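Honest question from a wet-lab person: if I give you the sequences of every part of a complex, can you actually get the arrangement of the whole thing, not just the pieces? Trying it with mine:
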Amino acid sequence: MTTTEAPPGSLPGTARAARPQERTAQRRRAILDAATRVFGERGYNNGSLVEIAEIVGITHAGVLHHFGSKEQLLLAVLAHRDEVDIERLATQQRPVGAEFLSHLVATAQANTERSGIVQTYAVLAAESVTGDHPAQEFFRGRFAVLRGDVADALGLTVGAPASDERVVAAASAIIAVMDGLQVQWLLDAETVAMPDTLRFVIDAIVESLRRSVAATP
Amino acid sequence: MTTTEAPPGSLPGTARAARPQERTAQRRRAILDAATRVFGERGYNNGSLVEIAEIVGITHAGVLHHFGSKEQLLLAVLAHRDEVDIERLATQQRPVGAEFLSHLVATAQANTERSGIVQTYAVLAAESVTGDHPAQEFFRGRFAVLRGDVADALGLTVGAPASDERVVAAASAIIAVMDGLQVQWLLDAETVAMPDTLRFVIDAIVESLRRSVAATP
DNA sequence: GTCTATATCGTGATAGAC
DNA sequence: GTCTATCACGATATAGAC
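Yes, you can. This is the full assembly:
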C-alpha cells in the first residue's frame, strides 16, 4: 500500500486535497503498528527507525517527520496501546470484583494468540528499569494503576478494603505472575500454560486472602 | 587499582613472571564485575565495551583481548553468576523441600540489598526473548532447571510427584512471581515488598496444592 | 597484556529539493 | 509529505607497536 490513490468515496478533482489529515492519520497508524512490532522484536534500544520505515515503505526521515524523534515514537506506541485497550473496555462496561479477575485470565488466554503484543510489553517493561529509559515513567504509572485496579477487585471479592496491605500485596503478586509467566512462555510456549496457571494462582490467593481477612479483619 | 605492582608474596626478581595467569585471572574477574554492572544498568544492547573498559581502567581493546567479543563477554558474565551461586550452594548443603522454598524467600530478602544484581538479571532475562539474542538459550535452560528444582521442593512439601502437572504449574508460578515482583520493585521500591509478598504467595500456593492433591492424588 | 590507530558500520537527526 | 544527502557520533572489531 504505497500508492497514492484518493480515499474511497471522495469526488474526482477534490481527491488530493479532500482529506489530507485522514491519509496522514492512516500513515501514522501504519508507523505505530510497525514500531510496535519492531520494538517488540528487538527492544527499544536495538530497534531502528530504518527498519520501521522499511516496513511502512518510506525512509526513516519520513518517520521522523511524523513523530519528531525515536523517543517520542516510543511514547506514542505505548499511548496508542493504552487507547486501544481503553476502547475495548469502554465498549463493554468494565467488569468489577471477581469478574475483573476472570477478565485477567481471559486476557492471558487471548494473549496466547498474539505473542507480538506480549513480547512488546514484556521487553519494554523490563528495559524501562534501566538508566533513564524514556518509558520509565510510563511503566511506573501503569503498574501503580494496575495494582489499584486489581486491589479494588480483590477487596470486593474477599470483603476487605482495597487499601488493606495484604490486599495490595496480593494485587502486586497477581500482576507479577502475569508478567513473569509471559517471559517464561515467550521462551518456552509448550511448557508454560499461562491462563491455567494464572487461574490457579488467583484462586489460591483469593482463598488465602479470604481466610486471612476472616481471621483478622 | 590501575598500577602494576607484583602480587603480594611474590619474590623480587621473579615478580613479573611469577604468576602471570593469576594476574590475568584477576583482570578477567574485574572485567566481569564491571560488565555485570554495565549490562544491568543499560542492558546488553545499550551497554558498551568502552564503558566497561573505563571502569576497569583499560581501553575497550583490552577487554576484547580477554573475551574475544561482546557476545562472549555476556555469556561469561552469566556463567560467572551461576558459578558464584553454585559455590554458595555447595558450601552449605542444598536445602530441600519446604526449606528450599524458605530459601527462595531469604534470597528475595537478600536481593533487596543488591538492586544491581536484580536489575542485571531482570533486564537480561526479558531482553533475551528478542530476535536471536545471545542469552536466549541460557535463560531457556535456566528457567527449565529452576522449574524442576522448585517442582521438586513443592512435590516433597505437599506429597505429590514433581512431575504432576499441577505441581509444575505451581513451580512456574512461583518463579514468575519472583521475576515479576523484581520489575515492579525496581520501578517502585517503596510500594513493593518483595519478600513478604513472595512468602504470602508461596504459602497460598502450597496450601491450595495440598488441598488439590488430597482431593485427587 | 595493553596501548594507539584505524577500519567499517549503523545510528538518530537535520537541511533542503521536489 | 516524502525524498536524497549529509552530518556527527558511537559502536564493535582488527592490526600492529611497545
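Two things worth pointing out. Chain A touches chain B through 54 residues (CB under 8 Å). Residues 1-16 of chain A have pLDDT under 50 and may be disordered.
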